[in-house]
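Q: Protein A?
A:
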Amino acid sequence: MAKINPLNAYKETKIRTASQGQLIVMIYDEAIRQLDIATSELSRATPQLDVASNAIIKAQDLVTELTVSLDFDRGGNIAKGLFSLYMFFRRQLMEGNMKKNPELLSAVRSMLAELREAWVQIAKPGLEENTPVTGVNIAG
């Protein structure tokens, strides 16, 4: 009989019960966390480049998830603007990974943190249902 890991069960429940806006915030949180890992690793005297590279790739995957969740029909110019930003982030992350440059990663992290704060406001209970257009369709 397999044991249930309480932490994993909690995380799964949190994700399953989250609103669309809360899911977006979670994606931002994890992308920021991965960039923190990569930047920290690259700033070490003897960095483990595989650890940094894997964290950057995870951040890229999360930005891709944000990109594919955009709803251009409902989001209009907001979705188009976010798409452009996400493409910029992907290029910066790719270049940061190739050059192992923590400054490029920090710039993306800073912008992700700003966008995350906007989504925190949108995802507040009661506000999300009244927001006319979010520009995101997490269902894909």
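Q: Protein B?
A:
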Amino acid sequence: MHQDVLFISDLHIGLEKPEITRRFLDFLKKRASKAASLYILGDLFDAWIGDDDPTPPNNQIRKQLKALTQSGVAIYFQPGNRDFLLGQRFCQETGITLLDDYVVVDLFGTPTLITHGDLLCTDDLAYQVFREKSHTDDWKSNVLSKPLLLRLLVARWYRLRSYFHKRKKSTDIMDVNQSTVINIMSTHQCYRLIHGHTHRPDIHNFSINNHSAQRFVLAAWHKEAGSVLSWNNLGYKIETL
């Protein structure tokens, strides 16, 4: 019986990144097919402008995700800051389950909080303002009502603008705020947190009210390699693809 629970994030799949696409499809066919479940913690795509977008490699991804869920592997998706417009149509086409921003999972007896990670970066005030506005139903409906070609052009412009904005920000501002981490974990009564977003893979040990706590930061996938956090009843390991 397959017991492994897998966690990945920040693949940023797009037309111009064929190596990552191939590695992800291979991962779904080989490694993920041997697991009990797969959690994708956001930014699977570099940009998602609607479930009606057929731009390659979107249909390849849909097809392989559907094959995996039909084989019995449960797949859960937590939207990131790049693909928060992914909706129910995509879920119905692939069989994946869409999750809220914060979810507590029972990871072999230990309540574990999972999230994409952008909500933890509270020092980046400009981004948090944009995030609050862009996640409203009105904002999403307005964007999705636009013609597909226009959405594609806007997404390309946004990625370019985001790139230059990041170059102006300090790296500390784009990292998580530790006080926010502790408050969120305390609110959800968890002493283990798994997230992505920051592209700073690490395992942080700290304490919350004199109780040992851990924060697992998932690695982003690159042209050279991908990374998976694998968990079973014996513990965890980080696998490099």
